[in-house]
Amino acid sequence: MKRAEHDVVVIGGGPGGYVAAIRAAQLGFNTACIDENEVFGGTCLRVGCIPSKALLESSHLYHVTQSQLGQHGVQVGSVGLDLSAMLARKDKVVSQLTGGVTMLLKRNKITAYHGRGKLSSVDTVAVETAEGPLEIRAKHIVLATGSRPATMRGVEYDGDRIGDSTTALNYPEVPKRLVVIGGGYIGLELGSVWNRLGSQVTVLEAMDRVLPGLDHEIGQLAHREFQKQGIEFRTGSWVEGATFDGKKCTVQCKGSEPIECDRVLLSTGRVPCSDDLGLDGVGIETDRRGFVPVDENFQTAVQGVYAVGDLLGGAMLAHKASEEGIVCVERIAGMKSHVNYGAIPAVVYTHPEIASVGQTEEQLKDAGIEYIKGICPYGASGRALALGEPSGRVKVLADAKTDRVLGVHIIGAHAGDLIAEATAAIEFGASSEDIARCCHAHPTLSELLHEAAMAVSKRAIHTA
Hints:
The chain is of the alpha/beta class. It folds into 3 domains: 2-148 and 272-339, FAD/NAD(P)-binding domain; 162-268, FAD/NAD(P)-binding domain, CATH 3.50.50; 343-456, FAD/NAD-linked reductase, C-terminal dimerisation domain (Enolase-like, domain 1, 2-Layer Sandwich), CATH 3.30.390. It contains 14 helices and 21 strands. The protein has helices spanning 17-26, 42-47, 49-67, 83-107, 165-168, 185-196, 216-228, 279-282, 318-332, 361-366, 382-387, 415-427, 432-437, 446-456, and strands spanning 2-11, 31-35, 111-121, 124-129, 132-143, 147-149, 162-163, 177-181, 200-205, 232-235, 239-244, 249-253, 259-261, 263-266, 270-272, 305-307, 346-348, 353-358, 371-377, 393-399, 405-412. The strands form 5 sheets. It has a 5-stranded mixed β-barrel. Strands 7-14-8-9-10 form a 5-stranded parallel beta sheet. Strands 17-18-21-20-19 form a 5-stranded antiparallel beta sheet, with helices on both faces. The longest helix is centred in the first third of the chain and has 25 residues, at 83-107. FAD binds at residues 53, 117, 145-147, 310, 316-319. One of its GO terms (cellular component) is cytoplasm. NAD(+) binds at residues 182-189, 205, 269. This is Dihydrolipoyl dehydrogenase.
């Protein structure tokens, strides 16, 4: 058996893992990163964030060319769809970025191992590589193995006709009818892709509304916008089973008639990849859902073994995992950095985009916190009108006593970019007046946040 030794070993090459490895190398640690896939980048780069956004962009351009260019005075002939070319472009984007991660690891002199890694002792990782077994000793071991799509009882997953988000990135043809089980952001993003390309999409959600984690008002606006786009929603639908008989898929919901379709996308959340990591053998217990408990240093119950990202639960977001990976190794190095979980933005890349940071109105009410809100509709923005994007809203929530910004929620064009300013405001404890006192360029969409901040203190100019 081959053996190696490093200061820091990271198991998992996704946004939590490779970022942690790079930061560890920057801090002077002899670092290694292990991933079982042929390329680094994790779910996000390979089969998650990046390929889905590539398809969202391509499908949006197809839809705009089909139905919206005329209002700009641009006349086009018949518009065709080359799905294979669209998928090839998606794969090229993924290849460029995963190749970039490999380059970054080399540039930072990080040893890369390809294989399945697991703890064999508190300071040793056993790796099954293509060249044979490998044993790596390290003083510090960081677990960053991410998550995978959740399964569901009664849904006969086959990875083809009945599949998950990974399957939905590579449908060989546009399904005439697609049923999405789950009304969260992943289901709505991929449902939007295939809806734009011509599929009749039905979303089944067990709760009484889609995007249940969002601010309720923003979620209602999103629901209406997606319905206008032709997506059918059936909330309060409890799926009992989904099968494929060789010709068609059938989805059965409690108390409803069966739904027949061409494909089923199961999108009911994600579960941590904490199994088969050797945790039990070294004394690390997970909770009932498989998440790994850690302390403020991201250290598990075993000294020298740490965990970050989706293994911890909470918001399963790539940028959260990266922040945790950085802070984890900085804590190992003796630094006093931290993650501000109150300033982690979230974005849904549908059209319109949806973005939020901080607390929702519902959370503030439940906590008994008095707040004031300011709202600015997209229709009040000259830039939004020029873009042909008048639908949307920006909402700023501020403490009624201190005016400190507690939450910002946006639905509309480029919401994912606009949320950055709001995140910075919350990170630095800014007030709504601080945002209002900052001069925003005209005409830009950023003026929407400026106007909403002014509306908190009833000083709005363009929406008075």
